[in-house]
Amino acid sequence: MTIRCNGAQALVAGLERWGIQQVFGLPGVQLDAFFDALYNARQRIRVLHTRHEQGAAYMALGSAMATGKPAVCTVVPGPGILNAGAALATAYACNAPVLCITSTVNWPLLDRHYGGLHELPDQSGVLARLTKWSARAHHATQIPDLIDTAFEQLLSGRPRPVAIEIPPEVLAQEVVLTPRRPHTVEKPQVDPQQVAAAVEILSNAKFPFIVVGGGAQHAPAQVRELAELLQAPVLSRQMGRGILADEHPLALHAAIGNRHWPRADVVVGIGTRLQQLREWGTDSKLKVIRIDIDPTEHARVTAPAVGLVADALDATAALITGLRTAGINRSQSWLDVRGAEEAFRNELQREIPLQLAYLDALRAELPRDAVLVDEITQVGHAAKLGFPLHAPRTLITSGYQGTLGYGYATALGAQAALPDRRVISINGDGGFLYTQAEMATAVLHEIPLVAIVFNDNCFGNVQLIQERWYGGRAIATQLHNPDFMALAASFGVHGWRATSPDELRQALRAALAQRAPALIEVTVPKGAMGWVWGFIMPQRVRGV
What we know:
By secondary structure, the protein is α/β, with parallel strands linked by helices. The chain folds into three domains: 3-177, Thiamin diphosphate (ThDP)-binding fold, Pyr/PP domains (Rossmann fold, 3-Layer(aba) Sandwich), CATH 3.40.50; 192-335, TPP-binding domain (Rossmann fold, 3-Layer(aba) Sandwich), CATH 3.40.50.1220; 352-535, Rossmann fold (3-Layer(aba) Sandwich). The protein is 40% helix and 16% strand. The protein has 22 helices and 20 strands. A six-stranded parallel sheet has the order 3-2-4-5-7-6, with helices on both faces. Helix 8 packs across helix 12 (312-325) and helix 14 crosses helix 15.
């Protein structure tokens, strides 16, 4: 059986084959055939068009990070790709499976440097440096293979963004193709010899730590069982938060782990870059066991004693089986985790009381499975330390990229992907204006995201640093803001204003009840927020 279709229809069929039900994007002349094909598939694939290419790419980022499943954005070539670049860079940092579909200049102008519409000197090179894999279709018959390869890349190994360029003439080109079926992507097998070596090391460990990162988000049950077998504290910092619920007696914030790092004799890193080895230090007395599907990551800082190149769930499960066979089942942790957590909370309360009060207000009103999308703002940084989490993927951050302004549009994508759950976006007044135009997108597509803007009329993080480290010489930090309530109203977004944690709680309760796009402005006096960086900045405590 064969079908006659054009390249764009083959592209849409490929997306459907891999289970894509939403596409975030903006139309443009080089994508006309693609959007026409999406129109014909509109009952099966929902198109959420945005006001800016960065909004489309951030929404795909949010969808991918909230679900762990591939998400698709589409932008025009040239400036569209550059506008989406920050989101792709953030997806790369956060191991988010985002597929970016774009086009090129018209075929007769391709790579000729004539200055065609939306031409970049080396568009393929730009995409190659922002993605795990990228390719260009030269004929419509190549599109099914490229789509399959793109999803294989998204679903195997380390899940980072990928991109496909399809010239407009190739999207419009008619061909005869054979329909395909989706296939399973194979995972690497766990090496039993490496498991046995890890079990032997852990059998003799007296002060073991477990460090988890984003690569373990799909294995919370296995992480919990391993931790309980070893009675090992589980450290998490950003992407790993919530893998072991904060109320678990072995869950430990990384800032506390930093202080106890010199005592550790074994560390098990699961799905993490294990930057503690570089930032906190290491020495010959610390044995390292790494579980990471990316083989290039294992020895990036220092070679591990054991390296399991495998999926976090599979390798952790194999390790548990090996430990049970060896009779390892400890009854008590070497560290009083709850005592350390309580003391740490008291420290936070002394240093950043206002941030904690706002986070407590949020936690009190939100369901356990709510998703909080942070920003590069004081309350966002504090959330990594003091916002209790009960499950993985319930705190979304921009990872090591630290992408100011990513939060609101990313949260829109998360909410669109999780329509039956609540998503909250916290922002500073500086970062929020990066993508505030997407309030129009929220209203148009009826995305019930609640956004909170903490407004101190300045880039508060920068100003605090300038005051502390540069003798108070504040420069380029003061902001002229709109009337946020009037701004929200102009978009048709419900607005509330709060001046305290109690008022925020009341406003959030009202916003959640009406299940529509909402904006809550929290007015904050300059300098009211405490100094969070003393808890976040790592201290080298070993091998110094």
